[in-house]
Recover the amino acids of this structure.
C-alpha cells in the first residue's frame, strides 16, 4: 500500500506575495463556485458567437483545473490517483452536463475533427442515445454502454470533457476493474473526494451563472444534447439570444437551493 503523501509546506502567506494554504476545502469549493458564476455571467453577457462562448468556457475550465491543483497541493490524496490515459472503466456511465458545456463540446468537435471523422463520432453518439433514451444510470453499467468518445480506452474530447467527467477519480484501479466486470453495486472504490467537491462546485457555479444571465439553464443528458447542438446551424447564437433549444434532453434532477434563491425556474 502506498504511503500517504505529506502536505507541501512551501506555500507562503499573502504578506510574501503568495496565497495562504487552503484551510477548509468545503469553503474553498464554494468560493470557486461563486467565482465561476460571476465569471460565466459576465462572459455570457458579452458573448455573441460560438467562438466567444468557447473562449469563455476555456477560461472557466482553466479556473476549475487550477482550483483542483491547489486543493491537491494543500490536501494531497492519501494514495496516488490511478486514473490515466488508457484506463476507461469509468467511461460507462450516464453523463449529465450544463448547456454551455454541450455547446463548447460541439464547437470543439467541429473544429478538431474532419467531416468524415465527425460523421463517425456523431453516428456513435446517435447509437448510444437511441439505446439509452430515458434509461436510468444503472442501465449504462448493467449493459456495458461505452461512451461514444472512448476510442482505444482514450477520450477524444479530454481537454473539454464536462465537469461530471472531471469529478470522477479513483485511487483503486482494482476496485474499478472489479466493479465494471462484476457489476456488483457493493464494490467499494476509493476516491479522492476533494477533487469531486471542487469540480462539482464549479459546475454548480456555472449553472448558477447561466440562470442569472437569464438563459436556458437545465441539466441535460450528454448524448441527446450533443445531437441537438451538432444539428443546429446557429445553435450557440440562438441560445445566447435566449431561445430554449434543449428541452428534449433535460434531466429531472432537483435544482440546488441557491439556484432557487437566485430566481431560476426549471424548464422541466
Amino acid at each position: 500500500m502506498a504511503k500517504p503523501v505529506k502536505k507541501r509546506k512551501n506555500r507562503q502567506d499573502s504578506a510574501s506575495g503568495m496565497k495562504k494554504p487552503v484551510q477548509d476545502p468545503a469553503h474553498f469549493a464554494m468560493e470557486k463556485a461563486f467565482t465561476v458564476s460571476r465569471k460565466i455571467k459576465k462572459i455570457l453577457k458579452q458573448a455573441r458567437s460560438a467562438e466567444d462562448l468557447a473562449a469563455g468556457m476555456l477560461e472557466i475550465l482553466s479556473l476549475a483545473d487550477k482550483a483542483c491543483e491547489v486543493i491537491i497541493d494543500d490536501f494531497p490524496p492519501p494514495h496516488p490517483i490511478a486514473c490515466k490515459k488508457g484506463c476507461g472503466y469509468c467511461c460507462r456511465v450516464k453523463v449529465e452536463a450544463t448547456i454551455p458545456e454541450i455547446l463548447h463540446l460541439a464547437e470543439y468537435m467541429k473544429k478538431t475533427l474532419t467531416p468524415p471523422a465527425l460523421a463517425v463520432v456523431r453516428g456513435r453518439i446517435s447509437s448510444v442515445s437511441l439505446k439509452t433514451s430515458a434509461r436510468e444510470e444503472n442501465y449504462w453499467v448493467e449493459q456495458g454502454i461505452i461512451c461514444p468518445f472512448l476510442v482505444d480506452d482514450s477520450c477524444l474530447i479530454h481537454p473539454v470533457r464536462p465537469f461530471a467527467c472531471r469529478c470522477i477519480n479513483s485511487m483503486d484501479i482494482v476496485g474499478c476493474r472489479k466493479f465494471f466486470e462484476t457489476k456488483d453495486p457493493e464494490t467499494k472504490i476509493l476516491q479522492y473526494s476533494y477533487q469531486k467537491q471542487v469540480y462539482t462546485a464549479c459546475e454548480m457555479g456555472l449553472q448558477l451563472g447561466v440562470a442569472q444571465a437569464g438563459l436556458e439553464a437545465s441539466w441535460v443528458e450528454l448524448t441527446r444534447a450533443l445531437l441537438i447542438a451538432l444539428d443546429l446551424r446557429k445553435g450557440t447564437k440562438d441560445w445566447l439570444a435566449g431561445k430554449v433549444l434543449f428541452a428534449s434532453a433535460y434531466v429531472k434532477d432537483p435544482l440546488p437551493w441557491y439556484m432557487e434563491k437566485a430566481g431560476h425556474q426549471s424548464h422541466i
Remarks:
- Residues 25-254 form one domain.
- The two ends are 47 Å apart (CA to CA).
- The longest strand covers residues 96-97.
- The chain has one domain: 25-254.
